[in-house]
Design a protein that fits this description.
This protein has 182 residues and is an alpha+beta fold. The chain contains eight helices and six strands, in the order αβαβαβαααβααββ.
Length: 182
Amino acid sequence: CQTYEDNFGIKIDKYVHIDFYSFINIVNYVGGMTLYVSAAERKVMNENYITEINYMTSQPLEKDYLPIESGNVHMNGKQVLAYTRVRYVGGGDFGRTERQRKVINELLRLVKTMKPSRFNKFAERSLTNVSTNLSETEVMSLLMGASDYLDYETVSARVPIDKTHHSGKLQGAYVLIIDLKK
């Protein structure tokens, strides 16, 4: 939250934080997801991120590699995490945040299709995997209204938006310099 406040002057009042391990569990709770994976994305996922995630989770290093082919692939939580972390393919960090938005939208789509009893179990399991500064009453209120909220249109964007930044060097590092007025 402090990063947003410092860089954009946006105060974050309420938050829900999901770490890598929790993200893996949440995706597994919905049964995984099918996403299009290019050959270049698959290569980076297999050679960089799945190996790293296996190491972090004490799994055998050869576990959960994606098949050689590109295309629509049904992936488990670990594989989806690797997909969301790919940075060096298709637009650098902007490509990575685009993949992250695709995953969030697919997760929302999958949750929207759940039967109420399955949604309740998903919510119960997921809540143990997040940290938040929402009170228990606020969380319960949000869950009670979930059937309404899940029908809302999802709108997403990235910061910085096009034509509001340029590349530059700041304190010896290459960064995006943002024109906050734009």
